[in-house]
Amino acid sequence: MNFLDGSLFPENQPKLVITAAPYGPEWLPSDFPEDIPVTMEEHIQKAVDCYNAGATVLHLHVRELDGKGSKRLSMFNELLAGIRARVPEMILQVGGSISFAPEGEGNVAKWLSDDTRHMLAELQPAPDQVTIAINTNQMNVVEQMCEADLAGTSLGTPEGYRAYREMTIPAGPEWVEEHIRRLSAKGIQTHFQLANITQIETVERMMRKGTCNVPLILTWVAIGGGFDAPNIYNLANFVRACPDGSVLTLESSMLNVLPLNMMAIAMGLHVRCGNEDNIWTQRRDRKMGSVEQIEQLVRLSREFGRDIASAAQAREIYRIGTFYKDADETLAANGFAPNRRPFWKGVPIPA
């Protein structure tokens, strides 16, 4: 991405898109019972509350009544339908892991099988987006968490800590290409959840080969443990690797979430918050729910002079419903250099 003179002026920036992640699949309801929904009505109401607070994108997971993350697609269908009926304008983004929560006591948290995740393309009503990881990777979500982050929670127990320390993401090239093809065929946008620059490079190569003809709507997931750490050097390198036509959201964990989101607001990027990412205030004097986190970002963004996107504006910014016919159109729309032609020498710039 290029930052020309005036790029930090709010009048030259898109309105802020806030993604809410209020279903905290790594937590047990007992970790934050005031904020983590369990019943279907609580799930739906949480979406409504996040929307009313200013979030226009909802990153969703769903729980069974026993509090464990649901792995049943029928539950996702029920939740999607319930939210559509109450807040039809909201962008619904299904977490591509479905539920990475351990299936039983002592088990390691893991993503479901390739075939099961492919079934997300068959959800009814169809979500607007499904998140996708690129390249099989470690996802040790507790690596950069400290004792104060985990105090009094299920992740602070030896079994809970180990379950999430050992988690990996299966996302090999054959599965990724097929998954994008299936989602696109159903009119569902792929939202890329990327850990580092190498994964952007893989996406670019797919686009150059014509196997990924979609907008580059992505999130930098800076959580450590196989992903980039949330520091200014990694952020600058990642942003520089993103082409000008991409749409970038920043994501981190625990007390890194707010500082990173403030950088995103200032830079004209987009933000994500919610109890999936953090449950504490910056002083750790109390827990902070998803709606309060959204309200905080709305307030800060207005202090920066940057307006919050409406649902319609967020759909336009995210290019919901847009797909491309071939590699040439995809590369041009996303701001990548064109594919090399046989008669081009040196840097591939068309005459």
From TrEMBL:
Gene3D superfamilies assigned: Aldolase class I
CC cofactor: Zn(2+)
Residues in coiled coil: none
A molecular function GO annotation: 3-keto-5-aminohexanoate cleavage activity
Annotated keywords: Metal-binding, Transferase, Zinc
Claim: Transferase is one of the keywords in the record: yes
InterPro entries: Aldolase_TIM, BKACE
Tagged with keyword Secreted: no
Top-level division of the source organism's lineage: Bacteria
Listed name of the protein: 3-keto-5-aminohexanoate cleavage protein
Lineage, opening ranks: Bacteria, Pseudomonadati, Pseudomonadota, Gammaproteobacteria, Lysobacterales
